[in-house]
Amino acid sequence: MLIYLLLIAVTAAVWYVRRKYSFWADRDVPYVQPRFPFGNIQGIGRRMHSSQLMTKFYHELKSSGRTFGGIYFFTNPVALALELDFVKNVLVRDFAHFHDRGVYYNEKDDPISGHLFNIEGSKWTNLRKKLIPTFSSGKMKMMCPTIVSVGGRFRECLERCIAGDGVVEMKELLARFTTDVIGTCAFGIDCNSLNDPNAEFLRMGRKVFEVPRGRILKFFFMATFKDFSRRIHIKGTSADVSQFFFKVVRETIEYRERHNVQRNDFMNLLMQLKNSGQLDDSGETVGTLSLNEIVAQAFVFFLGGFETSSTTMSYCLYELALNEQIQQRARQCVLDAVKKHGGLSYEALMDMPYIDQCINESLRKYPPGANLIRQVSQDYRVPGTDVTFPKGMNVMIPVYAIHHDPEHYPDPERYDPDRFAPAASETRKPYSFIPFGEGPRICIAARFGMLEARVGLSVLLMHFSFSRCSKTSVPLVISSRHAVLTPEGGLWLKVEKLPLVDSLCLIQIRNKYSFWADLGIPYIPARFPLGNIQHTSHLMLELYRELKGKHPFGGLFQFTEPVALCTDPEMVKQVLMRDFRHFYDRGGYSDGKHDPLSGHMLNSEGERWSTLRRAATPIFSTGRLKSFFPVMVQMVEHFREHLNGKLDIDGAKVELKSLLGQLNTDIAMRFVIGIEGNNLTSPKGNLHEVIQREAFRLPTIWKLFLITCYRPVARKLRFKTFSRHITQLLQRVVRDTIDHRKEFSYAIRRTDLIDQLLGMPGFDGKPTLTLAEMTAQVFLFLGAYEATGLTLYYCLYELAQCPDIQERARACVLETLEKHGGITYDALTDMPYIDQCLNETLRKYPAGINLIRVVTEDYPVPDSSGIVLPKGLNIIIPMYAIHYDPEYYPEPERFDPDRFLSEACRKRPPCTFLPFGLGPKNCIGYRQGKIQLRLILIVLLSSYEFTTCPEITLGTRSKTHSVMNMKSDLWLNVKRINSTNDVTAK
After folding, report:
1. What is d(CA 340, CA 515) in angstroms, rounded to the nearest whole number?
2. 946-986: per-residue pLDDT in tens?
3. Are the beta carbons of 663 and 636 closer than 8 angstroms?
4. pLDDT, tens digit, for every residue of 308-337?
5. What pLDDT score does 765 carry?
6. Alpha helices per DSSP H over 464-576
């Protein structure tokens, strides 16, 4: 009999569960298959956060095309919102059917749970009516000075925390800040959390939100079976937490009433409602509050301000640390508002639109309440369907899933505050952004939370910078043990204190940094003192890509100076060619008196540049180049013999970077000065080594700042960009060369730069250039050959990486040499594939990162609605970034010489290949450079085969050189091949 009864009971239970789990199927609603006994919530609190699980269900069900789908909490059916119109119905349009949240509370056994967030029906309506006036704009303005004063203590606390390595767990620190804010504003108590990380208020706040894994399912059980949970007296709040808050509120009220204490805080407003049922400035009686009600409201106010505000600020700082330009723009917004309103006032905090955008984007990506729940208060027939929701059923709105739906927010994982710019907000679908809920049950304290976040972020951004560190988790891992979205293991950032500047200087800097905004030009916000210009090629590539397509040029800042970055080939053409008269200076620093080598042609301006250019041009004529060609062939043949010797001694592995540099320096010395360099055979300390080490090394950052922004000051301080050693060495070489020629009454004639400069008219009525002026020009041309060596270095590396391309290039060489009977001047101009290889190398590895031009007279930008670039402004043409633009060069990292086939070149827009510049100020020696490159490359390819050394890579680019150089050497395996080609000039 017992077995029979047990069988009946089991059968009845199975039938009951199956009937419950058939709810959605019976109504032909798409649903997620449940699993007894947890339904669809198994795994919450253990493997994943509820936001992740609901997002999974949301995407799984949304493809059905229905406005809602079905899931189960234990055995109870729950409707999951899938469309925004359904969300609107639940939260606003049909609010009468959904005015309760369905959250468990038990006022009898757990009075602190009877707060505004939990309670239902008319009790909620009456209490909300009482509390709404406490969150008016006037009340927020009244509390603002209190919050700002806590912000000052927060700044001091953070300064102490970064005294070591500067790595700080910001989530914890911000929780201490919000604890002190809420303690002060809600209870009128100094919680001292910023000074004491174990303060009791902070400890209680942690305890509420740090829920053991098993208790998360308990909360779902209480919410699902509320009546049963009340009958068995289940409490949602720990006894010690409840006792603590009752004690604090009771003692605070007693003390204030005994001593007639009046404060501008939330507690004072609650006491007014307790004693008189009205607020002083309203005159309207809304009803009194009991002590239990005051404690419950103070408790939920504490929780809302403690956790959600600190979490939102934490995520915002995390994203700002990962997005430097956004951080700079946010900081500038704060500084502008503080300057405009004379301090961090309520008015200033309300006038920070970009800070609001950052906060809103943080609330989108990381909404504190990942899901909203509403309970059906009376049977509800879903519009447009035959489905009726019975009274008592829960409806879930997956806020996190909606906020991450690419239909509403394209590329939802990207942090982009401009999603909340005014123009974008107008096009955003209603109810796609609901971090505080919506409708009559929207979070009553949302205004206070935003004010608290504005204060915290403003204080931090004004005084500190934030960046990632080794402890920063990317991407963040969300803890499954917290009710709100909380990063697992905290949120660690590198924090640095911003340098102090006096008020006048700060105002000047702000004015400088507003230059592009005032013109209405798209720009990237700057960070004092460096701005946003650095040498690194990849940074320029990022800046270019961010600004491209918004305008023909965008705005940057070099230190505090505005700089225009060209992003459109047509604008490049205007600057370099069409409107050259507006841009004929390069803006280089020169001080011929105290830094003689800086007075070369590249840095010269105006008429001085024109004179030097005219003087040097004849040495690059076709006749001069042809006459020098046999000398080059002889020197390259000598290089081949030297390389053969190294192969005999060292085997196949050869360091080619130094060898190629030495060869090019030898050619340069012969062509420019007319002397033998012997850099290949000389011991260390030769001229090539000195030029490579010192000539193109960037100055220190503070020197760069002065010579960029304050050139007259730099000249008065006698700043030098080149060392005394290289200056004296080159002056001695030039002096000895000139003296030698004078000794023979100039009977020694060489068609080189020295002869050309000796015969040119000087400056200021002098018959010739001074020694210092001649040395500067010699230095420029010698240094330029460093780039030639680097181009060969990169080309051989790429050919070694691509054996098929190397073989094709070698075939081109051998075929042409056979056709012309050896290496001739004409043969060099008849090797199209060699030119393609060199051009592709120059595209991938241009010697310079950028071309700089200076606006020499005010320039009205064509077709720009009256925008005028002022005289003195620097223009950057990002040569490297243009060369890596996939619009012009698909798969730009790939080495592909066929990009430079004639047909491909015709299809590309002009001014997208700029290794030698363009226009009147293009590289004066590019023709000679290309002849030299061709010659060396065809000799090497006809004589050797190059392969990579597997254990050796190209390395990283040097950040200390003004040309694109690598920190490491270039080692390749070199193998001699049989070749009968005659390397004698014909």
Report:
1. 16
2. 998 876 666 555 544 444 555 567 788 899 886 544 444 44
3. yes
4. 788 899 999 999 999 988 999 999 999 888
5. 41
6. 503-513, 515-519, 537-547, 569-573
Q: What is the mean pLDDT of residues 843-854?
A: 88
Residue matched to tokens 């050394």: 949
Cβ–Cβ contacts within 10 Å for residue 48, how many?
15
Around Cβ 146, how many Cβ atoms within 10 Å?
17
Q: Residue with structure tokens 């909606």? A: 402
Tally of CB atoms within 10 A around 917: 18
Strands (E), 82-225: 167-169
pTM here is: 0.53
- The pairing of strands 653-655 and 851-854 is unpaired
Helix, coil or strand: residue 78? strand
Q: What confidence score (pLDDT) does residue 693 get?
A: 60
In sequence order, the β-bridge partners of residue 69 are 80
DSSP 441: G
Residues paired with 278 in a beta bridge: 285
Quick check: 376 and 395 in contact, CB under 8 A? yes
Residue 405 corresponds to which tokens in the numbers above? 């739906």
Give phi and psi for 71, each to the nearest 5: -140, 175
Determine how many CB atoms are found less than 10 A away from the CB of residue 605: 15
At 258 the pLDDT is 78
- SS3 call for 26: helix
Q: 253: which 2 tokens?
A: 């009220």
| 3-class secondary-structure state, position 555 | strand
How far are the Cα atoms of 448, 679, 686, 688, 745 from residue 683, in angstroms, in the given order? 74, 8, 7, 11, 33
Torsion angle of C-alpha atoms 630, 631, 636, 638, degrees rounded to 10: 120
Instruction: Give CA–CA dist 747/741, Å, rounded.
Output: 7
pLDDT band (50, 70, 90) for residue 432? very high
How far is residue 17 CA from its own chain's centroid?
53
> Could you tell me which residues are beta bridge partners of residue 168?
493
Classify residue 347 by burial, with Cβ atoms within 10 Å: 0-12, 13-18, 19+: middle
Across 375-401, average pLDDT: 93
Q: Which of 494, 398, 453, 577 is nearest to 154 (CA)?
A: 453
Question: b vs e for 667-676, b when ≥16 Cβ sit within 10 Å of the residue's Cβ?
Answer: bbbbbbbbbe
- Tell me the chain's radius of gyration from C-alpha atoms: 37
What are the φ and ψ backbone dihedral angles of 264, each rounded to 5 degrees? -85, 70
Distances (CA, A) of 785 to 308, 798, 968: 61, 20, 19
601 close to 616: Cβ distance less than 8 angstroms: yes
Structure tokens at 225: 């079976």
Retrieve residue 224's tokens.
């699902």
**CB–CB of 942/810 below 8 Å?**
yes
Q: Which of 129, 138, 141 is nearest to 280 (CA)?
A: 138
Are 899 and 889 spatial neighbours (Cβ–Cβ below 8 Å)? yes
Average pLDDT on 147-162 reads 88
pLDDT of 321: 94
Q: Are 932 and 670 in contact (CB under 8 A)?
A: no
Tell me if the bond preceding 529 is cis, omega within 30° of 0: yes
**pLDDT over 70 at 469, yes or no:** yes
Beta pairing partners, 851: 877
Rounded-to-integer distance, Cα 437 and Cα 809, Å? 67
Burial of 198 (0-12, 13-18, 19+ CB in 10 A): exposed
* Whole-number Å distance between alpha carbons of 197 and 702: 40
Q: Which residue, 533, 538, 658, 664, is CA-closest to 957? A: 538
HSE, side-chain direction, 13 A CA sphere, residue 78: 33
Positive or negative torsion for Cα 937, 939, 945, 951: negative
User: Which tokens in the block code for residue 78?
Assistant: 């729950």
CA dist 173 and 171 (Å) reads 6
pLDDT over 80 (residue 841)? yes
